[in-house]
Design goal:
Distance between the termini: 51 Å
CATH class of the largest domain: Alpha Beta
Helix content: 40-55%
CATH architecture of the largest domain: 3-Layer(aba) Sandwich
Number of domains: 2
Strand content: 5-15%
Order of helices and strands: EHEHEEEHEHEHHHHHHH
Length: 227
């Protein structure tokens, strides 16, 4: 199945949230597309079974809905790759055991959605992901509540690097130039760190609070901030 860059003939306005759906079952894609079509703020701009083909076929989507199992293999490495590039990835899957969900979050996904959780949770999760707000559907809530690991969030190397440069009094535009990425991607790294702390029950809504959390957890050292 190839990419469908104009999914359903829809021509989204710039103000609408754009979504790409990656799944290797056409019936699932059509079902999710029909759910998202009930929300006028959302526009599906590409669909298909191969992430690279889908994402190359359209404008950059605000949110990527990614099936975790594609063509017989788990795609956690693709979650890591896309998240590392600053993309908002919502993973949805029939594999909703806590270990899988936590692995997906550690890989950088902004949310996990179990396939059986239905239209309302799907729409609300996508809307929240697009605005970098935490949204916790039932399967994700169960995994977080049952998580007996440390409450220190796992940040990617790119997230940590962006935070460190930002904490060193660089503007996000300067951080973007230093890391050779877009300012939007820098903002996503910072926002993802905040989301991870919020999920861990340790919210950090301000820069000062986020710095304090990062130092507490050894993600950055106090002497690095003065460099």
């Amino acid at each position: 199945m190839g990419a469908d860059p104009v999914a359903g003939g829809m021509t989204p306005e710039r103000s609408r949230i754009t979504v790409a759906i990656v799944d290797d079952h056409p019936v699932v894609i059509e079902g999710i597309r029909s759910w998202l079509a009930t929300e006028p703020r959302l526009a599906v701009v590409a669909t298909g079974e191969d992430p690279d083909t889908v994402l190359a076929a359209s404008q950059p989507a605000d949110v990527i809905l990614l099936d975790l199992r594609l063509r017989g293999r788990m795609a956690i490495d693709k979650v890591t790759e896309l998240s590392g590039a600053g993309r908002r990835v919502v993973v949805y899957s029939e594999h909703s055991d806590p270990d899988t969900i936590l692995a997906v979050l550690d890989a950088g996904a902004v949310a996990f959605l179990a396939k059986q959780e239905g239209r309302e949770h799907c729409v609300d999760t996508v809307l929240a992901a697009a605005s970098d707000r935490p949204y916790v559907p039932p399967a994700l809530a169960g995994a977080i509540v049952g998580d007996r690991r440390t409450d220190r969030p796992v940040l990617s190397e790119k997230e940590r690097e962006a935070l460190l440069l930002w904490f060193q009094s660089m503007s996000k535009a300067s951080v973007a130039r230093r890391m050779n990425i877009s300012e939007h991607t820098v903002k996503q790294y910072v926002d993802r760190a905040r989301i991870k702390y919020a999920r861990a029950g340790r919210p950090a809504p301000t820069k000062a609070a986020l710095l304090a959390r990062a130092i507490e957890d050894g993600l950055v050292r106090a002497d690095e901030i003065g460099n």
